[in-house]
Amino acid sequence: MAGEIAASHRRDPIKNTVGNAAVQRRRQHAVSVAKERREAMFRTKRLCTEGFTNDMDVAINGDMMIEEESSLLEAQTSSAVEELKLAISSKGKENTVNALRELRRLLSRSEFPFVEIALKSGAIPLLAQCLSFGSQDEQLLEAAWCLTNIAAGKPEETKALVPTLPLLIAHLGDKSSLSVAEQCAWALGNVAGESEELRDLLLSQGALLPLARMMSHDKGKTVRTAAWALSNLIKGPDPEAATELIKIHGVVDAILRHLKKSDVELATEVAWVVVYLSALSDVAIQVLMKTEIVQVIVDQLAASNTLQSLIPLLRSLGNLMAGDVVLGPGNETTDSIIRSLSKCLKSEHRFLKKEAAWVLSNIAAGSVAHKQMICKSEAVSILLNLLVTSPFDIKKEVAYVLGNLCVAPSDGSGRPSLLLDHLVSFVRNGCLCGFIDLVKSSDLEAARLGLHFIELVLRGMPNGEGQKLVEMADGIDAMERFQFHENDELRMMANLLVDSYFGETYGVDE
Amino acid sequence: MMMVDNHLQTQTQLQSEFQYWFPVLRRFGPDDPFFASGNIERELLAKQIALDLTEEEKQELRNLEDEYSEVFCPIVGCGATLKSLTDFEDHYNARHTSSCSVCSRVYPTSRLLSIHVSEAHDSFFQAKAARGYPMYECLVEGCGVKLKSYKSRHQHLMDKHNFPSTYEFFKKSRPSKKERMKKIQRKQKHVAVSADEGEESSAMQVEEETLDGLVSAVSKLTTSDSSPSAISFGRRHTRGFTFVPRAVQRETKK
Predict the structure, then answer these.
(1) What is the reported pLDDT for A20?
(2) Cβ A455–B72 below 8 Å, yes or no?
(3) B82 has pLDDT over 90
(4) Is A35 part of the contact surface with chain B (CB cutoff 8 Å)?
(5) CA B142, CA A71: separation in Å to the nearest integer?
(6) 3-state secondary structure of B99
(7) pLDDT of A108
(8) Which domain of life is it from (chain A) (predicted)?
(9) Which of A322, A476, A508 comes nearest B27 by C-beta?
């Protein structure tokens, strides 16, 4: 079939097109291919290249395509659409399925699927017809697959699916075969991932409920696809969809059930749903915190070895801890959390360290007991080291943890009191330099953190040691830089500190 | 006893205006830039097979994020954009740390430095100011207004340019650690102390010793006990003083 022809062309020797023009075109081609690949990376859409059938002649290659081959495939695409049109109008079921399959193969290339030409040739209305109720499964499947890959590309291409959306949603129903429902979910996931407008449209057309129901299935692949589509659908920024989702009967149970499973890919996608639920909806956090979800996540975190699952598990935990809910879990759970976070702090991945430190900073903002637990763990020595060695964005998060550990929870009146033993211990370990580095940086938030910590040191270190330590670490220098800083708040803070602690009478009684 | 007083004063002063460290929960929206690198990693992991990404490509995509992290120099009137924090440090050290050759105080722009030199070390300036000429330039470049006194210039900065009242071009001096050590040693041994760190030129050394003499002379003028006067000549890191009394100035002339 067409797939074979395409393959044999690739095996032909590269035609010899001499001259600058050809080289130029090839270079431009390469640039636009690279750009397209990069953009494909950042989209939250996914191309479906492997399906439920066994044909593996789908082209997946990293080589730059030769131009002649490209225009040939374009021609093939438009003729495939033509064939489909003929097949539909002649009402030949087998022909229709064959034509669909042909089109699907062309659209499944990971390298430049020929979506634009398919659209121009009028594929959408034809595909919509193929989705009519009562059609055989294979036809529905192939049609949904085509739509999935059309929606995986550029914004205009995804938007083209709008006329087919109600049909795709309808085929999510419990009367559809599972593979059809899955493929429709995938297509809808791509559409939802495109923009807020499309998300709103899908929600208004009732996409949420059937997708949520799909999560209650047992088949891993189905749940995975449904979960991924759901996370694209509820990602907001309007939190309403997230709040709706958590209220749907059976969703919370399904989430917990799947998170406990050892299927890593499944737990990953379900965890991403929790990420969005917890990031967007306070109601969701409240509902979830009444369950054992924290323990489940903590267990999975401890058992998890793959980066892909670590990311959403860590982040769900972080989002849940950041909610207005007081951290309820008992000491064992908290201990386990701190251990997992320490593991992440030692990761080679920069963002993992950063996010783990963030979660710790929120735990450290809790009760005195929580702060003490962190201080007793190995987390502190890792953090002190990171303060000195790590890149700036991680340093900032670490600063939050250390500072939070030194200050008691505020009781609403004036100045919060210090936890002296923590402060003294950190300062003796040489953390002051790291904070003064933050003061010197150009980032306002970091500078504020640094100045705040300096105040703690000046106020809290016994026997006026704070002043000497700050001076020795070039702290006065760093603060004096603010004299000419454009930010009023920071300038005032720095001036106040220097005037109050390093005024005329500084060090007189030595 | 002095220390206790100091702390009390510190506490009350700070308490009224300072914003202290309060531990708070920090939360980020799902698409906050804070999560960007984690999100990119998610997409990379999900698509690496389908798109057949090489390690190089993946690293390149991760680095794309860093390209957008520009740094703006926060020093008033600078406006420079730097590509990274290390670049910023270099920029700061190159452009914003010019120091006065007379008293080694540091200023962030050459214009402010030259204003300082006129106002603090130029007797001609002092003479004209004393006779009532408006000599104190507005610190905002391009304004051009000149005032008759340090105070009225300060007022102008607040009125016309919204500077806060805490903005002090010349702050009250604070004796550096070396200065304080010197005073103590002088009291103990009455011997001139050598220059610190060996970095200063001999010219500075001479000036220092002369200055030291002046300080002790001036302190004798006051009726207070051994506490230092408000004026003190310092090395780098100390800040300027509001005015130089004529008596002292005459003696510094070489």
Answers:
(1) 67
(2) no
(3) no
(4) no
(5) 62
(6) strand
(7) 85
(8) Eukaryota
(9) A322
CB pairs under 8 A between A and B: 213
Is the CB of A414 inside 8 Å of chain B's CB atoms? yes
Helices H / strands E in chain A, number of each:
30, 0
**Residue among B34, B57, B174 minimizing CB distance to A503:** B174
Test A40 with B51 for CB contact under 8 angstroms.
yes
Distance CA B220, CA B226 (A): 9
Q: Which of A351, A413, A482 to mutate to test the interface with B (most CBs of B within 10 A)?
A: A351
What does the block give as tokens for A192?
Answer: 């939802």
Tell me whether residues A495 and B168 touch, CB distance under 8 A.
Answer: yes
For residues B37 and B62, is the Cβ–Cβ distance under 8 A? yes
Region of B194 (left: φ > 0; alpha: ψ -120 to 50; beta: rest) is: beta
DSSP A198: H
Hey, are the CB atoms on A504 and B45 less than 8 Å from each other? no
Interchain CB distance below 8 Å, A488 and B164: yes
* Nearest-by-Cβ selection for A496 from B14, B23, B184: B14
**A330-358 confidence digits (pLDDT tens):** 677 888 999 999 999 999 999 999 999 99
Is the pLDDT reported for residue A18 higher than 70?
no
Q: CA A7, CA A106: separation in Å to the nearest integer?
A: 12
Q: What is the pLDDT of residue A113?
A: 73
Separation of alpha carbons A334 and A244, rounded Å = 30
**Pairwise CA distance, residues A432 & A453, whole Å:** 8
Which of B13, B50, B88 is the closest to A49 by Cβ? Answer: B50
pLDDT band at B112 (very low <50, low <70, confident <90, very high): confident
N residues, chain B:
254
| Residues A48-96 pLDDT 10s | 877 655 454 444 443 445 556 777 888 888 888 988 988 888 888 888 9
> Which band of pLDDT confidence, cut at 50, 70 and 90, is reported for residue B174?
low
Of A28 and A229, the one with more pLDDT: A229
* Between residues A454 and A481, the one the model is more confident about: A454
- Three-state SS at B100: coil
d(CA A450, CA A435): 5
Q: Report how far apart, in Å, the C-alpha atoms of A455 and of each of A281, A466, A473 are.
A: 36, 9, 14
Element (H, E) at A480: helix A475-480
